[in-house]
Write a structure and sequence with these properties.
heterodimer, A: alpha/beta, ten-stranded mixed beta sheet, three-stranded mixed beta sheet, 5 helices, 13 strands, B: alpha/beta, eight-stranded mixed beta sheet, 11 strands, about 25% strand
Chain lengths: ~220, ~230
C-alpha cells in the first residue's frame, strides 16, 4: 500500500533527533509536527522570524501578529524566540538549522531539486525554499513517487527550473525511503506491501537496490 | 529635543515627497506587520510607476494589493506573489514586472542596502534561474553568486511602539522584514500602534534605533488574518 500524506509525515518524523532545530515546509512537511516522538524535543523554525513554533491557537489565543511562514495563525512554544527576516535567514544560510523538510516537483539522482516553477504556469515565487536548500546540511524531500499520470518524479536529471543544486540527501515518498549519493538513488526502505519492482518501475533515475529492502515500520 | 521629534499627525505629512517612479521598500510578511494606513495614503496620492520591494503584494482589497487596481505599481521585487487575482492578471499580461527574489536574499538585500554594503555573495540560487546574468565566484571550493543590495526612496514600516524620537519595538512575528526595511529608505516612515514619551522604552529592548527613522505616525490597524488556523477541539 502506498502511504498517505500523514504516513509520509510519520516516517519523516522518525528522522528527527532530540535537540534538533528543524524547518518544515508547507504541505506534507508541516504535518511532521504532529508526529514528533514524545521522548524527544525539537524546535521548529519558521522563516518569517520564529524559532519555537507552538500549537495552533484556540479562538481566545488567536493573534494576527503571530503567524508561521504559511501565514497560518500559530502560538509560540515554551522557549521560543522572535526575530527579523534577516536574522532568520542568517540561521538558515549559516547552516544552523539541523534539518529542513520540504516538498518538490522533481528530484534527480545528483540531488538537484525543482520545486517552485513550472514554465507556462503562473510562477508565484520561491519564498524561502532556495535559501533553505542552499543553507541546510540535511535536507529531506517529501513527495509522491510519481505524478497522477504515473510519470516518475525521481529523475536522471530535473526537467524543471531548479530550486537548488546537489543538495537533496534523502527522499521520503509514498512508496519508499531513498538516499541520494554518488549520482544515484539508493533504496533504503519500501512502504508496507509495496514491491521493489513497483519502485523500480516508478523511478526514472538510476536506482541502486540492495539485496534486502526492509519495509518501513511505524 | 525638538530636532528629534519625528511625530507627524497626518498621513499626507507622513508620505510627503513621494512621487512617480520612486522605489518603496515595505515591511511585512503576507498581511502580518504591514503599514496599512501608509499604503492607503499611497493609493490616495495616486502616484504611479512605483517599484515596490516587499516580500509579498497583499491581497486584492488589502495591503499592497490595493495599489494594483489603478496600476500604480510598475515593478515588484518579492519572494512570493500572486495571492490576488488582479496581480495575476497584470503579471501574465506583462503590465507588471516581477523580480522574484529568494526570501533570504531579499532580506539581506535590504539589510546590506541599509548598512552601506553594495553587494554580497550568497550560495542561494546558484544553478537556478535566479543566478542568470550574475557573477559567480568560488570560496572554499563552493560557488556563490553576487547579489546587489537595495535601497529605496522611501521605506514604509509597521512597528508596535515608537517613542517620539523614533526608537522602535515590534511585536511577535509582525517584526519580519520591518527592521531591515527601516534601515534601507532615504526617508523611513513608520506607522505604529502606540507612540510613547522618550524614556518609556527600555534601551535594552529597542529593536530599531531612532537614527533610521524620519517620520512616525500613529495608525489604526485592522490586522486582517490571511489564514485563520485554530487548534482542533
Amino acid at each position: 500500500m502506498s502511504l498517505n500524506r500523514d504516513q509520509i509525515a510519520m516516517r519523516v518524523a522518525q528522522e528527527l533527533k532530540d535537540g534538533y532545530y528543524v524547518n518544515l515546509g508547507i504541505g506534507i512537511p508541516t504535518l511532521v509536527a504532529n508526529y514528533v516522538p514524545e521522548d524527544i524535543d525539537v524546535m521548529l523554525q519558521s522563516e518569517n522570524g520564529l524559532l519555537g513554533i507552538g500549537p495552533y491557537p484556540t479562538e481566545e489565543q488567536v493573534d494576527a501578529d503571530m503567524i508561521n511562514a504559511g501565514k497560518e495563525t500559530v502560538t509560540a512554544a515554551l522557549g521560543a524566540s522572535i526575530f527579523s527576516s534577516a536574522e532568520s535567514f542568517a540561521m538558515i544560510r549559516g547552516g544552523h538549522v539541523d534539518l529542513t523538510v520540504l516538498g518538490a516537483f522533481e528530484v534527480d539522482q545528483n540531488g538537484n531539486i525543482a520545486s517552485y516553477m513550472i514554465p507556462g504556469k503562473l510562477v508565484k515565487g520561491m519564498g524561502g525554499a532556495m535559501d533553505l536548500v542552499a543553507g541546510a546540511e540535511n535536507i529531506i524531500v517529501t513527495m509522491t513517487h510519481a505524478d497522477k499520470r504515473d510519470n516518475s518524479k525521481l529523475l536522471e536529471s530535473c526537467s524543471l527550473p531548479l530550486t537548488g543544486v546537489g543538495c537533496v540527501k534523502k527522499i521520503v515518498t509514498n512508496l519508499a525511503v531513498l538516499e541520494v549519493k554518488n549520482g544515484a538513488f539508493h533504496l533504503l526502505e519500501r512502504a508496507p506491501g509495496v514491491s521493489v519492482e513497483e519502485i523500480q518501475q516508478k523511478t526514472a533515475g538510476k536506482l541502486v537496490v540492495p539485496d534486502h529492502v526492509p519495509e518501513m515500520s511505524f | 529635543m525638538s530636532g528629534f521629534n519625528k511625530v507627524v499627525s497626518t498621513y499626507q505629512e507622513a508620505m510627503a515627497g513621494l512621487s512617480d517612479d520612486m522605489t518603496i521598500i515595505a515591511g511585512g510578511f503576507g498581511l502580518c506587520g504591514i503599514p496599512e494606513g501608509l499604503t492607503r495614503e499611497i493609493k490616495e496620492m495616486g502616484v504611479k510607476g512605483l517599484t515596490i520591494v516587499s516580500n509579498n503584494c497583499g491581497v486584492d482589497d488589502f495591503g499592497l494589493g490595493i495599489l494594483l487596481k489603478d496600476r500604480q505599481i510598475k515593478k515588484m521585487v518579492s519572494s512570493y506573489v500572486g495571492e490576488n487575482a488582479e496581480f495575476e492578471r497584470q503579471y501574465l499580461s506583462g503590465e507588471l514586472e516581477v523580480d522574484l527574489t529568494p526570501q533570504g536574499t531579499l532580506a539581506e538585500k535590504m539589510r546590506a542596502g541599509g548598512a552601506g554594503i553594495p553587494a554580497f555573495y550568497t550560495a542561494t540560487g546558484v544553478g537556478t534561474p535566479v543566478a542568470e546574468g550574475k557573477e559567480v565566484k568560488q570560496f572554499n571550493g563552493r560557488d556563490y553568486i553576487l547579489e546587489e543590495s537595495i535601497t529605496g526612496d522611501f521605506a514604509i514600516v509597521k512597528a508596535w511602539k515608537a517613542d517620539k524620537i523614533g526608537n522602535l519595538v515590534y511585536r511577535d512575528t509582525a517584526m519580519n522584514f520591518n527592521p531591515m526595511a527601516a534601515t534601507a529608505g532615504k526617508i523611513t516612515v513608520v506607522e505604529v500602534e502606540e507612540i510613547v514619551e522618550v524614556g518609556e522604552l527600555n534601551p535594552n529592548e529597542i529593536h530599531t534605533p531612532g537614527i533610521y527613522v524620519n517620520r512616525i505616525i500613529q495608525g489604526t490597524f485592522e490586522k486582517r488574518i490571511e489564514k485563520l488556523t485554530l487548534a482542533k477541539n
